[in-house]
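Hi everyone,

Forwarding the result from last night's run.
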Amino acid sequence: MYTCVVHCAAHTTKKLAKPPVTQHRLKYMQYSNTKARNVFLVISLVIAVGVVWSAPSKKPQMSDADQAALSVFGLSSEDSNRPSGPAGRSNEPGNSLFDSGFMDSGVGENNLPDQPDARQRNYGDPEILDPVSEGNPINPQTGQQFTDRQMSQFDTLRKKFPDNTVIPQRMTPELKAQKEQRRQEIYQIQTRIVKKEASEAEVNEYYDYQQKALNDRLELIDYVLNKADANMSDDMRKKFEEVQQMNQRTLKSYEDARKRALNTIK
């Protein structure tokens, strides 16, 4: 009897010893499930990041005309919402308009500097990634030629403002000679006005020529402020408004000078 109890107890002990094996399997299954879940989460995270990274930016894209209008003033779409720093070289983003004769003179190519090439400063590296064709005009803010991409944008802008003389255009030898001849004619009239030898028609011709450049400049500034302002910072908008006001004052000063010149005619 005693032997049977011991034998049965030993047999029962062996049966009770099996559960740890089952618990080990459960732990292994739980570990496997956890590992699979972690792998799934990592893959999901990678996919989510990929979707967000490749998603199109919510920032509105500027049209070619808007890009061109900013390029006329030596800016890009990225510069328009970038706070401007201290004045520096005109090929630095955000500074070119406000560090150049383009702003200071208040007029475009119609002005008559003592040295016609004085506004073309040879500094800054060219945009080596963008092709430049022969005949592309010089950007007075950088001293380098406008790129073909910029010229294409200017062509788009010119469709909006076909009579605007400030928008850069490709210069054929014939067109270049024509413009130079016109500049010389205006320069001669200017000399006659200074000597008080100009006729009434010449006085009006000279000031019409100068005011045309200012009006064209104001036309583009108005367009930039009212049409291409989606990404413009408050600081940049303020500077454009200051340039606008300066050009308006210059326009008025030309009109006053016209009246004075006409009054000297006998």
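The chain has a mean pLDDT of 69.

Cheers,
N.
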